[in-house]
Specification:
Subcellular location: Cell membrane
Largest sheet: 5 strands, antiparallel
Low-confidence stretches: none
Organism: Cebus imitator (Panamanian white-faced capuchin)
Number of domains: 3
Number of helices: 1
Pfam families: IL6Ra-bind
CATH class of the largest domain: Mainly Beta
Shape: rod-shaped
GO cellular component, one term: plasma membrane
Radius of gyration: 37 Å
InterPro entries: FN3_dom (IPR003961), FN3_sf (IPR036116), Ig-like_fold (IPR013783), Type1_Cytokine_Rcpt_Type2 (IPR052672), TypeI_recpt_CBD (IPR015321)
Mean pLDDT: 86
Order of helices and strands: HEEEEEEEEEEEEEEEEEEEEEEEE
CATH architecture of the largest domain: Sandwich
CATH superfamily of the largest domain: Immunoglobulins
Oligomer: single chain
Length: about 325
């Protein structure tokens, strides 16, 4: 009878014991923070009791090995462990496995394999200059300092993202710099004139899947251009007692035209249609402008100007009083 009872109870005890083992560590991931540390994380599973984790590593292409230990009583980073200099060399291949142990037993993860250059992460670059290039339109040049702790034996790939200061939509360009290239600049072309842009930059070791964080944002403005043409129109008022006619002139940029410049002023000249010798000229910085004309027909022309040049001429005919 006792043997029968023992045979019935033994499988239950085994089942209970196995259920109390720690969960097998899964999803192991490692990042090599260049010249700082190698940090590995994992998914620990649901823990019902105190669990100690030991990360076992081989390095120097399998010639050396060491351990790193953490436990579930540590509220922060309980599923992470780091290896520090000088026990990190690059380039190198290493293996990582995580062992979980509690009072009821030990369970070990699958072995994982890591090539350090493929998981290297650097500090972000530092942008120190965003400025236009003299005489080159719609372009700004970005200059930066590459991360001090970056592999000297590897090329660096970059992502530069940018937006206008009033926009929330980022645009991106990607490029690679050769490790021997001392020129840490990039020319961003095809931009809007006289527009302020926000720039940020990140980098990664060529061949690594981990990008640096984004650099601090920096702002710069493209050069202005000579003004574009204006739309000119008029408001005709009734003639005064002396026969002179008040004519109000108004102008604006065409609908949808980009702001390319800071306008310094406007030149307006006008003359009777049949007598160009009576041309008069006015310079102004404001609008509207009111002219007092005779009863005959007139031609009115105007340009805007800035430090870089003049706009195309806008011209308007003022009809004579008797014209309908």
């Amino acid at each position: 009878m006792m043997w029968t009872w023992a045979l019935w109870l033994f499988p239950l005890l085994c089942k209970f014991s196995l259920a109390a083992l720690p969960a097998k560590p899964e999803n192991i991931s490692c990042i090599y923070y260049y010249r700082k540390n190698l940090t590995c994380t994992w998914s620990p599973g649901e823990e019902t009791s105190y669990t100690q984790y030991t990360v076992r590593r081989t390095y120097s292409y399998g010639q050396k090995h060491d351990n790193c230990t953490t436990n579930s009583s540590t509220s922060e980073n309980r599923a992470a462990c780091s290896f520090f200099l000088p026990r990190i060399t690059n380039p190198d291949n290493c293996t990582i496995e995580v062992e979980a142990q509690n009072a009821d037993g030990v369970i070990t993860s699958d072995m994982t394999y890591w090539h350090l250059e493929g998981i290297a992460k650097t500090e972000p670059p530092e942008i120190f200059s965003v400025k236009p290039v003299w005489s080159i339109k719609r372009m700004i040049q970005i200059e930066w300092i590459k991360p001090e702790l970056a592999p000297v034996s590897s090329n660096l790939k970059y992502t530069l993202h940018f937006r206008t200061v009033n926009s929330t939509s980022w645009m991106e360009v990607n490029f690679t710099k050769n490790r021997r290239d001392a020129d840490q600049t990039h020319n961003l072309t095809g931009l809007q004139a006289f527009t302020e842009y926000v720039i940020a930059l990140r980098c990664a070791v060529d061949g690594s899947k981990f990008w640096s964080d984004w650099s601090q944002e920096k702002m710069g403005m493209t050069e202005e251009e000579a003004p574009c043409g204006l739309e000119l129109w008029r408001v005709l008022k009734p003639a005064e007692a002396d026969g002179r006619r008040p004519v109000q002139l108004l102008w604006k940029k065409p609908r949808g035209a980009p702001v390319l410049e800071k306008t310094l002023g406007y030149n307006i000249w006008y003359f009777p249609e049949n007598n160009t010798n009576l041309t008069e000229t006015i310079n102004t910085t404001n609008q509207p402008l009111e002219l007092h004309l005779g009863g005959e027909s007139y031609w009115v022309s105007m340009i805007s100007y800035n430090s870089l040049g003049k706009s195309p001429v806008a011209t308007l005919r003022i009809p004579a009083i008797q014209e309908k």
